[in-house]
Amino acid sequence: MTLTYPLNHHDFLTYQLYNTTRSKETQKRRSKSRTRIALFYFLFALFAYLAVDSALAIISIVVGIVSYLILPYYIKHRTYNAMSSFVQEQFHNKFGKSGSVEF
């Protein structure tokens, strides 16, 4: 049994995104990035609190928490756009061609 399937932009994009999200290196890099940004705001809040500016410390803590919660969605959106342009540049000559799988 042979299955013929026309390949398009979405197929290549799905494959690239799957490989990116399953990569241990990428997962580690995302986790470190998320932690570093939040840690920066918390350290800034600590220094602001020690300098007797509690309003700035509270604002920094809130921004740190919000950035820790929102950053994964931002990274996901940015990765999707970057991979979409990468697929368009690298695989544009393969769009519309048929791929076949034989069982």
Please provide a written account of the structure.
This protein is mostly helical. It has one domain. It is built from three helices and two strands, in the order βαααβ. It has helices spanning 9-22, 24-50, 54-91; strands at residues 2-6, 98-102. Strands 1-2 form a two-stranded antiparallel sheet. The longest helix is centred in the last third of the chain and has 38 residues, at 54-91.
Summarize this structure briefly:
The protein is mostly helical. It has 3 helices and 2 strands.
* Domains, number: 1
Helix content: over 70%
Total beta strands: 2
The DSSP helix count reads 3
Percent of residues in β-strands:
5-15%
Set down the secondary structure blueprint.
Elements: E1 2-6, H1 9-22, H2 24-50, H3 54-91, E2 98-102
Antiparallel strand pairs: 1-2
Helix pairs in contact: 1-3, 2-3
Key terms for this structure?
103 residues; 2 strands; mainly alpha; rod-shaped; two-stranded antiparallel ribbon
